Structures are given as C-alpha cells and as structure tokens.
Amino acid sequence: MVTDTEIQQAAEKLDSHVSHIIQWHFSEDTGSPFWLNWASEQSWNPIDEVKTFQDLCDKFPNFQDEWLRDLPNKVWVPKAYKDRPFNIFETGGTTGMPKQRIGWDDFRIDYTAFSETLSDEHFPRNHYWMMVGPTGPRRLRLAIEHLANERGCSCYFVDLDPRWVKRLIANKQFDQARAYMDHVVDQALTILKHREVSALFTTPKLLEALAERKDLVRAGIKGVFCGGTTMDKQYARFLVEEVCEGGKIGFVPTYGNTLMGLARHHPINKENDYSIAYYAPQPRAVLRVINPDTNQPVDYDTWGRVELSTLTKEFFMPRFLERDEALRRRPWVEAPWDGVAEVRPFGAMEKTIVEGVY
User: Fold this and answer.
1) pLDDT for the residue numbered 337
2) How confident is the model at residue 261 (pLDDT cuts 50, 70, 90)?
3) Angle at 48 between CA 71 and CA 12, to 5 degrees
C-alpha cells in the first residue's frame, strides 16, 4: 500500500519539475515564441507566480486545441531547440485539420521509461514485435519502434487509417468498414504466418479479430499492448480471460496519445473487477479527473473529465481538457499519484460516439 510519505515525495518532485519547466518555457533564452508572447499579454508573470503544480492549475486557463491546429509549428519551437529540425506528429482519429505536435527526443524518453515497466516473460528481449495500428504521421509509429529497439527487438508494421474507418462508420457504410478491418487483419495474419513475432501492439477490436482467426498462443505471442478505444470492465475481462487465455499472453492496456506519451496501467484481475486504471508518467505529464465547471478534482471513484498537462522542455501544454471522462482513482505504490480509470469518450452515456477500430 502506498504511504502518505511516498505521495508527498511525489508531489514535491512534481512541484520542483513544474518550477523548472516554467522557468524554461518563459525564459527569453530558452522559451518558445508562443509562450513568450502569451506571457507578455498577461497581467502576471508565470516565472514569479507559478512554483507548484497547484499554482499552474490556479493560474493557467485550459490549453486550446485550436492552437495546435491553426498556428504554424514554428511558434512552438523553444529557443534552445531553434537550430534542430523537428518531427511533426499528428493526433489520431478525427477528420479535418488534425492537431499537430512537434518534437525531438520526447518520444524516446517517454518510451524508454515505459520499457522499465514491462516484464521479460511477456515481452522477451532480442526478438520481434508487430504493430497493427496507425502509423503515418503519428508519433506512435516511431515510439513503438523505439520501444522495441530499446528491448533489443525489431518491429513489423501493418498500417491502419482510423480517420477512414470513422468516416465509413459515421456514414453507416458498415460493410466497407468491416472489409477494411478484414484487410488489415489479413496483412497481420500473413506476417504471423511467415515470421516469428512474440509481442503485438494493436487496438482491442483488432486484437479480438486476430484471435477469432488464429490461436495467438500457438502463434508464439507472449505479450500484447492494447489501446485506442474504450475498454470497460466486461470487455477487459473478455480480453484477459478469453483472448489472452487467462494470462498465457501478458495483457498490457495502454492509455496515451501524441500529446501525453503513455500512461501505465495498474494490474487488472478479479480482485479489482477488471477495472483498468492508468497512471500518467509524472512528472513529465499529469492527469487529473475534474469537474470542468469548477476546475476542481472530483471525489475518488467518481466520474469527471480528464485533464492533461504535459510538462517537458520540448512541449508545455497546461490543463488540456481531453475528450475523455474517467473515474478518479487513488495513488498506487508504483505510481504514488492519482490515476484515471474506465476511460471512455466524454459524454458517452448521453450520446452515440463513433470510435471505429481505434
């Protein structure tokens, strides 16, 4: 069980990190044009007034996703990085102009840290992985390959266009959506037939479709990363007990995106009723579950909207309201800060959400 001392130490580490990141992004020597210009228009000075994470929550407004859609990427380049070309990454499954995030080394740092949470039993080193999911302009493609390489592995890729799938489903072209899904699964099965693969990264629905057509244990799969769409308790139990055959395949649900990186999960089993809780990679990113009308965290085990703050030298994004809602979970001994559980699209209980296969 996590102790109050561990929770306090993690909070102090976060406060120290916030202070450092604020100094970095709002200094004329290292900051980006966007944040330096933003600060010049305020009646207060972030460097003087933001020393803790609570200060950040109290002083900054919600980050607007339109800024990442409408503004040129160069406004986000910290002066310390001005002589380095940057990667341009896009967010996933919507149509229209996507949100874009630039970056240099963050994806390597984030996924190197995540590698330390994986077991060698289910994700053996010096072997082969396969990713079945969105590649193209998304950070995920480079990140998964780096994660594989970090563990001495090489990775095969089968691409998926989630925007196309969402469009098909929104237009009620379900036969076409199914045909496209079958096309993706066919490609993955071909690789499994002709190549050795011990670990998969894919979406829950594609994992289920693969398992319907091939015995994944007999195919040599030892571990699965799964993320991208909602996994409620019933579906999580099905994936663990049926698809992954009760632990024969290690099941690692993930919650992440281009803007955050990757949150690790608390182990799921019968004891916690297969409720998946995720914990952000603090202090580089922080997740809160809040009432957006009050900007205050909801009570533990209560539903609220997910708010993300990304705090790296490459990218500062305070208090971005995700399009997700979740239950607030208590700190965990391996991540002594709040978690988010049973993540689903915001407003999922009041309206129909199009998720597709991603």
Assistant:
1) 98
2) confident
3) 95
From the list 304, 338, 336, the residue with the least C-alpha distance to 322 is 304
Under DSSP, is residue 223 helix (H, G, I), strand (E, B) or coil?
strand
Element (H, E) at 235: helix 233-238
Residue 7: which residues within 8 A CB-CB, separation 6 or more?
331, 336, 337
Nearest to 330 by CA among 275, 262, 250: 275
Dihedrals phi, psi of 305, to nearest 5 degrees: -90, 145
Q: How far apart are CA 324 and CA 273, in angstroms?
A: 21
Tell me which of 273 and 350 has the higher pLDDT. Answer: 273
Residue type at 129 in one-letter notation:
W
Position with higher pLDDT, 130 vs 232: 130
Residues 74 and 24 sit within 8 Å (Cβ to Cβ): no
> Is-contact 44 59, C-beta < 8 A?
yes
Tokens of 69: 């859609």
Q: How far apart are the first and last CA of the chain?
A: 34
Chain CA centroid to CA 261, Å: 5
pLDDT digits (tens, 9 = 90+) for 30-65: 999 999 999 999 999 999 999 999 999 999 999 998
Q: Which of 283, 358, 288, 269 is nearest to 329 (CA)?
A: 288
Q: Using CA atoms, how far apart are residues 72 and 155, in angstroms rounded to an integer?
A: 33
Rg from Cα positions in the chain: 20
pLDDT digits over 187-221, tens only? 999 999 999 999 999 999 999 999 999 999 999 99
| DSSP H or E stretch at residue 186 | helix 174-194
Strand, coil or helix: what is 109?
Answer: helix
Cα gap 265→249, rounded to integer Å: 16
- Nearest C-alpha neighbor of 153 from the set 184, 128, 134, 189: 128
Residue 103 parent element (H or E) = strand 100-103
Amino acid at 327: L
Torsion of CA 10, 115, 324, 91, to 10 degrees: 120
Q: Residue 358: what pLDDT?
A: 46
Average pLDDT over every residue of 105-123? 94
Q: Is the pLDDT of residue 339 over 90?
A: yes
Q: What are phi and psi of 79, to 5 degrees?
A: -55, -30
